Amino acid sequence: MQIIQVQTLGEAELCFPHLFNVSCKKIMRPHIENMFIYIVLSSIFLLTTVLNLLLIISIHHYKQLQTPTNLLLLSLAVSDFLVGLLMSFQIIQIDGCWYLSDLMCTVYYVLNYIITSASVGTMVLISADRYVAICDPLHYSTKVSPKRVRLCVCVCWFLSALCHTLLMKDNLEEPGLYNSCIGECVVVVNYVAGLVDLILTFLGPLTVIIFLYMRVFVVAVTQARVMRSHVTSVKVQGSLTVSVKKSELKAARTLGVVVLVFLICVCPAFFVVITGQDTLLGASTAAFVICLFSFNSCLNPVIYACFYPWFRKCLRLIFTLQILQPGSSQINVL
Question: Does the pTM exceed 0.85?
Answer without folding.
Answer: no
